[in-house]
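Question (not urgent): is this output format expected?
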Amino acid sequence: SVLFSLCNPGDGTDLDFVTGNPELARQRWQEGFSEPLEIALAQSTTAADAETSPIMGAIQEIVVERMGTEAERALPTRLYVASDFLENTELFSMYVSGADFTAWESSSSAVKYATNLAGAEVQLWSIKRSTAISSAEVAEFWAAWVLENRGKFVNAIALQGL
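Got this back:
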């Protein structure tokens, strides 16, 4: 499920004191973006195990909500996704197939979760779980998924110490 979905309004560091109000922008950024993000990250590491993990569905939901119009898709976008990235639904499960992109392409998940990322840059923040699937395989799978869905894969970063 989606724990956090907000656009970063900027923290005011790029505003001029004469034509803008950097302090007000910083305060709005802190209260309306930074603090909610910190809370969401803290909650994500304490969440209980779930029966399914529809990561593609969550990304699709965010894209529809935040990039649903032609004007929104035209804006430069960077999407940060924090997860263990172990997709697990009845349509496709990495616990069954591993991080096998070919298996995903032939599954119903490829049709149901087809998502037009409209050139958005996607960065993965990976929370490691103890599984037989390597982090490198998972990152390669998701890089291919992003490209397949018309996005630009930036990188995958392993989160530690949350």
